[in-house]
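Incident log, structure service

09:12 report received: a user says their structure output differs between two submissions of the same chain.
09:20 pulled the input from the user's history:
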Amino acid sequence: MFERPQGGERSLLVQVAMGQPVPPDAVEEFRLLAQAAGAEIVGTLGGSRDRPDPRLFIGAGKAEELRALAAAAGAELVIFDHALSPAQERNLERLLDCRVLDRSGLILDIFAQRARSADGKLQVELAQLRHLATRLVRGWTHLERQKGGIGLRGPGETQLETDRRLIGRRIALLNERLSHVETQRSQGRRARDRAEIPTVSLVGYTNAGKSTLFNRLTEAGVFQADQLFATLDPTLRRLPLSGGPAVVLADTVGFISGLPHELVAAFRSTLQETREAALLLHVIDAASPERERRIGDVEAVLGEIGAKIGAQLLVCNKIDLDGDQRPRIDRDAEGRPWRVWLSARTGEGIELLLQALSERLRGESSQEWLLLGPSDGALRAWLFEHARVLDDVGTETGGWRMRVEVSSHQLQRHLLGDEGWRRCREAYQAQAPAQGRRAFAEDPPAPAPSRASVVALGSDANASAELPQERQDRTRRFGSEPAPVQSAISKSNRSPLAEPEADQQSHDTVALHRDG
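09:34 re-ran on a clean worker, output below:
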């Protein structure tokens, strides 16, 4: 008769190389995982095998060595850095007379401790039940009725079926509750889509510094610590960008090699923000010698959840731990940022990240020249919120002469069909000679005016006329503009609703470096 042991926290760690050497950082990572779960490590056991033993995983001889070591150290729990089958786990528990836990069970236990939100707890419980459902067989061996004989038949099979039925009911209930959570989050995403606020998701290996970077960018104050899976529940915050609209930045759970499939499946609603993000910020520990392997592990999980792996910007963090690196932006052959080097702890390179993020989200764009009248204040305000204002000069009639950079998406969706937009473009093209337009485009961009001065004026039937040349030159040199009066957007000149204001300061200084 054997009941499953009820163990404590004195733990013995087992890590065996199966067919290939153990990566240098895997030993330390396994130890940190055990400590994150609250284990008191009393010993370790290593070794190597060509392939796992079907019965005891590490073989009979190594299992006897493990039994002696566990007895000498007084271990109450043996943790394997491998995935064990239910039969292997049960056979080892019989032999060692103590509790046995594999890597998947260890990670699930850490998630159970770190979950704080209601939906996070539901997801962890669902993953734990799915993991437990495969380990019910032979859990009631002393009640089995397969022995035969009068008086030896027991209710073991009935108890097993009862447990399966109870777990099945609980899993169905958790799935129903999580479907409501997914519905609520989908409504939030649809609202952001309608407001055209893109989502940028932080992803990366656990303990790469995602939460530290998130706090540095948003000042959210989420929990950060030098430990594995310090942050579990997702957090979303608004992040204003220079030269473009604001975005929603999402901090998600970190990934790790050997992440349990049950956990990935249970956390699909949490990882939905990552799947539907416009851009992924892949945070990498630049000081880790195993960063290439970890990048592969993260991309494997991203592929499993269906995220857009191609739409990502690599963020090499912790350059303060590597004296050979400096803050910079690496660009591809087309000049687009694809990697940023920074330190989230010290703040070095944060401005470069914001610049690269703004460039990546801006996408394909075109420059447009406009002549706005006093009644076009609503259109001007919309351009400040959604486009990049390169030049903005006041006219003597209370209007504005503007040069803006607009994304092709915004141009097609909002502006080409807008009557005010077409009128202002035609007014500039009709009154400004070709050479004047070229000179205007070649002028250096003027500093963007204060957002407080961007207001909408009441309707006026006439657009502004062309200024005398000397007045244009004086206006451009001193940057003067009238102080308009705020009012609502008129129905006759309806433009898209402006979103909350975003910082218009630009970051023009960047250190470029092409890493071979």
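09:41 both user submissions now match this output. Likely a transient worker issue. Closing.
09:42 reviewer note: The first strand starts at residue 10 and ends at 14. Residues 1-5, 141-146, 434-516 have pLDDT under 50 and may be disordered.
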